[in-house]
Here is the input.
Amino acid sequence: MLEIGAGTGTYTDVFVRAGAHVEVGEPSSAMRAHLSRRARSDRWSSVHIADGSLPADLRVGTDFAAVLAVGVLNYLPELAPSFTTMARILRKDGVIIMNVPTAERSAGDRYRRIELLGRRRVYCRDRDDVEAAARQAGLRLDDGPVRAGVTDVYLLRPRAW
Ligand SMILES: C[S@@+](CC[C@H](N)C(=O)[O-])C[C@H]1O[C@@H](n2cnc3c(N)ncnc32)[C@H](O)[C@@H]1O
Here is the structure.
């Protein structure tokens, strides 16, 4: 599987322990250094860490069974280019698991306002936004929104599957 924006590796660890081979695309050198240290200390033998930033192509393999992007799409003004990048490297029976700040509930707007105090612009999305961007990328919305704090989680799959 591919994990985009793994941060400190909370989910990486979960998937490694479940037996997955995890490639990570992570733009922050500080986070990559942290992940590399963690890979050594926690004996992650099945993790490969690379530089990479959406919406550009990531320096990773292809044919992933699963692509995970948690807390990554919050600051990107458009979803479709990132979905297109993910769709390109997804297996035809694969799944994308991603979340976005919610525009379905007031919690998303509160989060957006708090982020503005730190001069960061967050983009809140509803189901229609995610579905339209997925369609542009040749994907279909398979499930979601599923509530997760100030975000909603969605599952996307290749349209033909
Ligand atoms: C809020 S953290 C989430 C970390 C992890 N996914 C989690 O949920 O614990 C966001 C992560 O996404 C990375 N990131 C930010 N912008 C990105 C982009 N355009 N493409 C890929 N990763 C990005 C950050 O460096 C950071 O590691």
